[in-house]
Amino acid sequence: MNTPAASVADYGARAIGPIILLGAPGAGKGTQAKQIVDRYGIPQISTGDLLRENVKLGTELGKKAKAIMDRGELVSDELVCDMVAERLSRPDCARGYILDGFPRTCAQAEWLDGYLSARGSKLPLRVIKIAVDYDRLLKRLTGRRTCPVCGTIYNIHFNPPKVANTCDQDGAALSLRKDDNETSISERLKAYEKQTLPLTDYYRARHALTEINGDAAPEKVSADVLAALEQRPDKA
Ligand SMILES: [Zn+2]
User: Fold this and answer.
1) Strand boundaries in the chain, DSSP class E
2) Known catalytic membership, residue 14
3) Closest residue by Cα to residue 228 from 115, 78, 128, 106
4) Which terminus in the chain has less CB density within 10 A, N or C?
5) How far is the CA of 30 from the centre of ligand 1 (A)?
6) pLDDT per residue as tens digits for the range 154-205
7) Which of 63, 177, 190, 232 is catalytic?
8) Is 188 a catalytic site residue?
9) Separation in Å, CA 71 to CA 52, 57, 68
10) pTM of the model
């Protein structure tokens, strides 16, 4: 594997541009986002956090959003895009940023393209999809067991305790989170697939997409993600 010769300090000073991470729940998106944030010193922008922040601070956008949510309705694409536009205009986004939970729809993706080109963004948008095998993902998620005493997380398929259903550290009986049962996980994954597939196609057609094999060893996945960011997407 080729390790770029640049030092961490170089990474933290360079412009990297906008990054979108796609990956199903349990695909390890959070871990990858964190290492990108640490290496490049760019912010991770979550639309959920942004919405909460605007409501809490009582901004004009936040007031509008709160009124809609109080009526039990969903915040419109337009309002979400306005909040994202405001966030991206802040100075900490100048060298780049990771978008988390945005875009969710092709309409939002089109809006983002328009926004970036209107601002004369020189660095291309990079979309990285962490692809994982469905059955493996299901095992990863349904096999999860937690110790209620010390919080250690096990996986009965990939990282089992020495004695079945018993914590190695303190002997406590391991527990299963309510929403970690197979039915609800399978529903979550299907909903994710349905929502993300059009976006994947959208970015693939624009040669902005890099797919990473998320079933590889964690160190390999991390290295592949960073390597993908160091090269321009395939224009062929
Ligand atoms: Zn324990």
Assistant:
1) 17-23, 44-46, 96-100, 126-131, 144-146, 153-155, 209-213
2) no
3) 128
4) C
5) 24
6) 999 989 999 999 999 999 999 987 777 788 888 888 888 888 899 999 999 9
7) 177
8) yes
9) 16, 20, 5
10) 0.80
Beta bridge partners of residue 45, listed in sequence order: 99
Q: Judge whether 128 and 212 are in contact, CB under 8 Å.
A: yes
Determine whether 144 is an active site residue. yes
Whole-number Å distance, alpha carbon 161 to ligand 1 midpoint, is: 10
Residue 8 has a pLDDT of 54
CA–centroid distance, residue 153 to ligand 1 (Å)? 9
Cα separation, 134 vs 26, whole angstroms: 10
Q: Is 95 a catalytic residue?
A: no
CA of 231 to the centre of ligand 1 (A): 43
Q: Return the percentage of the chain with pLDDT > 70, whole number.
A: 94
Identity of the amino acid at 204: R
Structurally, at CATH architecture level, domain 8-42+95-230 sits in 3-Layer(aba) Sandwich (3.40)
Q: How far is the CA of 146 from the centre of ligand 1 (A)?
A: 8
Active site residue 104: yes
Tell me if 146 sits within 8 A of 153, measured CB to CB.
Answer: yes
Active-site residue, selected from the candidate residues 14, 95, 139, 188 = 188
